[in-house]
Amino acid sequence: MPIITVKLAKGRTIEQKQQFVEAVTKEAVKTLNVKKEWITVLFDEYERENWATDGQLHSLKFGEGFGKQGTE
């Protein structure tokens, strides 16, 4: 029973998440040779102020709205 955890910044739409879980589930079934109903996908979503890369918070490094293109 594969459990796939996806960590990402907040801002994706329900439609984007649905497309993503469909694609990931399909590939997991094919690659891992398991039944579709055995696949679980979990989203851990973070505010950009709670995410940092290279020693700098993403909210400061990239500014407001970064990465949200196509999500609204």
From TrEMBL:
Family to which this protein belongs: Belongs to the 4-oxalocrotonate tautomerase family.
Keywords: Isomerase
Domain 4-oxalocrotonate tautomerase-like: 2-56
An MF annotation (GO) of this entry: isomerase activity
Active site: P2
EC number: 5.3.2.-
Protein name (record): Tautomerase
Source domain of life: Bacteria
TM annotation in the entry: none
NCBIfam families: taut
Annotated signal sequence range: none
Species in which this protein is naturally found: Schinkia azotoformans LMG 9581
Root EC class: isomerase
